[in-house]
Design goal:
Length: 281
């Protein structure tokens, strides 16, 4: 099911609400992907065209044998403050809660807060916390927590560059999480404080028996144009490429573009594409 709602407010042409929901409900033997749901809400505030809230939630709820991925949820909130178009808060949370046999990854949570200081648009604080709390047999990773705070260089408060990469390479029997890598780049341009590029990529590459999730990749780009703080482009792409038996979901790709026109902050184009390409037979 896919539903598109465009409800302009204020002057004509402004985007009040956009909502799209996609459901993939394969049936058959247990372990298949039960539900995929994504919803995007755009609720402008102040003068029409400003981005009030963006929220996207993705649920992957395989059913059946233990050890399957129970829930994946990611939520992103963009809440501008001061003059419209400034980025007030960005928060993303991801939960991976496999159930069943001990040693599975219990909880993964990451939260990012962007709290501008001084004049709107400057980056005050970036905080990310990651918790990996597997339970059960000894030798498993008990807790990983990292918090990063940035008070960059140049004049105080500007963010020059932040890059963090985390690698989790469990060894042993197939099906364990092979690689998790996340990299975040903040490269302001022009006068300090403007957000030039934000890129985060997450790869989940389980190895072993067919049917496991082959690749999950998500990339988000924030490239302000004109005066600093305006949102030039937001792009997120998600690829789900299971390998093995025919009929599995070959590719799911969704891309969202926000290209402001005229004065900065207006929403020019939103495009989302979903491709489901089953292979073989």
């Amino acid at each position: 099911m896919s539903a598109f709602y465009f409800i302009p407010l204020g002057r004509p042409g402004a985007l009040q609400t956009f909502m799209t929901a996609c459901y993939f409900i394969p049936l058959g033997r247990t372990g298949a992907l039960q539900t995929f749901m994504t919803a995007c809400y755009f609720i402008p505030l102040g003068r029409p065209g400003a981005l009030q809230t963006f929220m996207t939630a993705c649920y992957f709820i395989p059913l059946g044998r233990p050890g399957a991925l129970q829930t994946f949820m990611t939520a992103c909130y963009f809440i501008p403050l001061g003059r419209p178009g400034a980025l007030q808060t960005f928060m993303t949370a991801c939960y991976f809660i496999p159930l069943g046999r001990t040693g599975a990854l219990q909880t993964f949570m990451t939260a990012c807060y962007f709290i501008p200081l001084g004049r709107p648009g400057a980056l005050q604080t970036f905080m990310t916390a990651c918790y990996f709390i597997p339970l059960g047999r000894p030798g498993a990773l008990q807790t990983f927590m990292t918090a990063c705070y940035f008070i960059p260089l140049g004049r105080p408060g500007a963010l020059q560059t932040f890059m963090t990469a985390c690698y989790f390479i469990p060894l042993g029997r197939p099906g364990a999480l092979q690689t998790f890598m996340t990299a975040c780049y903040f490269i302001p341009l022009g006068r300090p404080g403007a957000l030039q590029t934000f890129m985060t990529a997450c790869y989940f590459i389980p190895l072993g028996r067919p049917g496991a999730l082959q690749t999950f990749m998500t990339a988000c780009y924030f490239i302000p144009l004109g005066r600093p703080g305006a949102l030039q482009t937001f792009m997120t792409a998600c690829y789900f490429i299971p390998l093995g038996r025919p009929g599995a979901l070959q590719t799911f790709m969704t891309a969202c573009y926000f290209i402001p026109l005229g004065r900065p902050g207006a929403l020019q184009t939103f495009m989302t594409a979903c491709c489901s390409l089953p292979l073989g037979r």
